[in-house]
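Exercise 3.2. Students should predict the tertiary structure of the chain below and write it as structure tokens, then compare their answer with the key that follows.

Predict this chain's 3D structure.
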Amino acid sequence: MQESANIANKVALVVGAGDAIGSAIARKFAAEGLVIYVVRRNGEKLAPLIAELTAAGCQAYGASVDARDEQQVAKLFADIEQNIGPLEVMVFNVGANVPMKILETTSRKFTKIWEMACFAGFLSGREAAKYMLPRKRGTIIFTGATASVRGAAGFAAFASAKHGLRAVAQSMARELGPQNIHIAHVVIDAAVDTAWIRENHAAHVEKAGPDGIVNPDDLADNYVNIYKQPRNSWTFELDVRPFVERW
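Answer key:
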């Protein structure tokens, strides 16, 4: 945290609050006492998470938002500031990990992946900064992946978008850091323990063994730790992987 402050009524927004990483991040920030606002394209899927957080005594809200749509994103941030509370943390966690060979990558697919993984991050980061800058405090965290730093075969579209998001984060950090806005980028260089991974990559999960894939709850602790860092020792980029993961 840049400076000690009362966080009552301050909001942690998770854009791309899926069932694994995004939900885990929301729970961790709820435990810190922040108001939680979670969004995803299919907002009805957030009902169980909202109910869980509310039952635990947390103030929690959710909505359907297409993070690629500039008007929807602008409205989301304006609604939070006007009706919920001041934005303290924004986590951009939209995924677009779609493997496809280069000859199968149409311009439409390439553009869609870029819009999801890069353009939507720019929109969310810009709108968060719009409200944080006048207060000169706030934390913006972008979720990255192996593809943020290394392009693999069959992932040209995804890697280009994730590289782009990392570049957006770097530029924002250099511009906004001196104005007391903490920008961070988390590279998740491994499989994350989700239902999809267990169903579609069971052999990898078994081979990895205990603690061989990333636990979403343990991963989410890193996001809270970034938020809590004193501004004399901020982290920009955090590289996360299990102890058995190849570099």
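Discussion points: The two ends are 31 Å apart (CA to CA). The first strand starts at residue 11 and ends at 15.
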